[in-house]
Amino acid sequence: MPEKETHRYFIELSYDGTAYHGWQTQPNAPTVQQYISDALYTLLKEDTGLTGSGRTDTGVHAKKYTAHFDTLRTPEELLNMALQYKLNKLLPHDIAIKTIRQVSNDAHARFSAVSRSYEYLLCRQKDPFLINRAWLQERPIDLPIMQQATEILFEYDDYECFSRSNTQVNNYICQLSEAQWQEQDHLLGFTIKSNRFLRNMVRAIVGTIVEVGLGKTSLKQFRNIIESKNRSRAGYSVPGCGLYFLGANYKEDIFI
Asked: Taking the alpha carbons of 29, 35, 37, 43 in that order, is the dihedral positive or negative?
């Protein structure tokens, strides 16, 4: 009797990362990946090999996160068993499954992504509704000069100075396609899009640009920091509570 064929699915979800030590499973710490893997095993009775589009740090949130898993169940079987509904019933209140879509078996949540986007939120005044969801930054800040610093980012493609030290990567080249600041009421939002991101890159970029906005770093010094490729010369890594993974983009031809 021939073996049943394995099917691959992309699962799109969102989560509030406050209670988790990031996406990736690790011993003795609650993670988003572990909760979803356990829920899938409970419902499918299979080890699905859940794989995410990237890792997020402790306290970081995701508005649209993609992971893939493999199962012997067909799309019709998953639909009939109401997998999405049952997953949401099993998972904690701060993790929500949005869609489950079949993809080609060689599609990969991480390696098939053509770009990724992040947002960072700064709160300019105390707001009880933004606790653990934005970084409280009440000091006077110069938004126009921060935007000038942001434009300088596009003149480079090597962002080693914003990468966590001792990261095992082949290179530090990233192709930015978007980066900008926006202001609404007492919130400042920084959005950035690239083909890839280095570990801790967004939080380090924000921390360095904020120092420009506070007058601690000039635009010339900002350029020198990037050209130095030295993490110790860049600004501090801002808190994870203000960082949101907005999503990864994929070519449509991988979806079935």
From this structure: positive
What does the block give as tokens for 47?
A: 């080890």
Dist CA 124 CA 251 (whole Å): 38
Q: Which residue has the tokens 């095993």?
A: 41
Which amino acid is present at 32? V
159: tokens are: 């962002």
Sole residue written with tokens 């030590």: 21
Q: Which domains are assigned to the chain?
A: 7-111 (3.30.70.580), 118-245 (3.30.70.660)
Q: Give the CA radius of gyration of the chain.
A: 20
Of the residues 38, 57, 157, 158, which is catalytic? 57
Instruction: Fill in the DSSP letter of residue 59.
Output: T
Exposure on the CB side of residue 216, measured as CA atoms within 13 A? 13
pTM of this prediction?
Answer: 0.93
Amino acid at site 140: P
- Catalytic status, residue 70: no
Return the pLDDT at 1: 47
Mind giving me the DSSP string for 226-243?
HHHT-GGGS-PPPPGGGE
Rounded Cα distance, 250 and 207, in Å: 29
pLDDT at 233 over 80: yes
